[in-house]
Design a protein that fits this description.
The protein is an alpha+beta fold. Helix content is 50%, strand content 17%. It is built from seven helices and six strands, in the order ααβαααβββββαα. Helix 1 (3-31) runs antiparallel to helix 7 (201-226) and helix 3 (56-72) runs antiparallel to helix 5 (94-107).
Length: 228
């Protein structure tokens, strides 16, 4: 057998071993339970705030209303584990939420009406820390300011994820606690997902092992090639 063929087979064997380890590793991860898989669309209650318009003043007002409502409901779901209980709390505090949003609008010098809705609405995908929510229909508390024709803002009201720092997005608005969703958000989520996987210790060890394996393969094959 030629020395070049021996060298090639050693390298190919290393590649096969590495590929098998990677497949096994991700198979183990997929089989492990996680909080991401513990929740389905039906288990979430999202908060959806719609601005009166896209004017700068109305968009600022939207964030003011958001901050006021989140402050008022900060501890509302503390210790709550079931969506049904969270829904009951929302209904019991309906007037509080309405009054809080209205007071924020009046304090800012506007006379817009506040309309609350609790229903199922479509949402695009979104990431909150390590939690990725796929696009789909979610139950949501919707706060409509005035005409409600402006860009909207949302987060997860239950479980309370509105205070979890989101994955940064390439926009100036990323300085707020949860930036408005972008059209390119799904691409951002996927790229960060794979980046997070690559940065795990197990994958880094695999990369180090792969580099070392190549060095060993070259070390073993080099004498054979020189003796040709």
């Amino acid at each position: 057998m030629k020395r070049e063929q021996i060298h090639s087979r050693i390298v190919i064997s290393c590649l096969i071993v590495v590929l098998a380890i990677i497949i096994y590793y991700f198979g183990v991860i997929a089989a492990q339970p996680s909080e991401v898989h513990a929740y389905a669309n039906k288990n979430f209650v999202r908060l959806h705030v719609l601005a009166n318009s896209n004017s700068p003043h109305d968009q600022d007002l939207k964030l003011t209303v958001r901050d006021a409502v989140l402050a008022a409901t900060n501890n509302l779901f503390s210790g709550v584990a079931e969506k049904e209980v969270a829904e009951q709390l929302i209904l019991e505090h309906w007037e509080l939420i309405q009054d809080t949003a209205t007071a924020a609008v009046r304090a800012a010098g506007y006379d817009y009406d506040i309309h609350l809705e609790y229903d199922v609405f479509p949402f695009p995908d979104r990431q909150y820390g390590a939690l990725v929510l796929p696009a789909g229909e979610y139950t949501a508390l919707r706060i409509v300011i005035g005409e409600g024709r402006g860009d909207n803002w949302w987060c997860v009201l239950f479980p309370p994820l509105c205070f979890i720092e989101p994955e940064p997005e390439p926009t100036a608005d990323s300085v707020i606690s949860l930036a408005p969703h972008l059209e390119e958000g799904d691409i951002e989520i996927r790229s960060r997902f794979w980046e997070r996987i690559r940065n795990t210790k197990a994958v880094q060890r695999l990369e180090e092992w792969w580099v070392a394996s190549l060095e060993v393969a070259n070390h073993l094959a080099l004498p054979l090639l020189k003796s040709k």
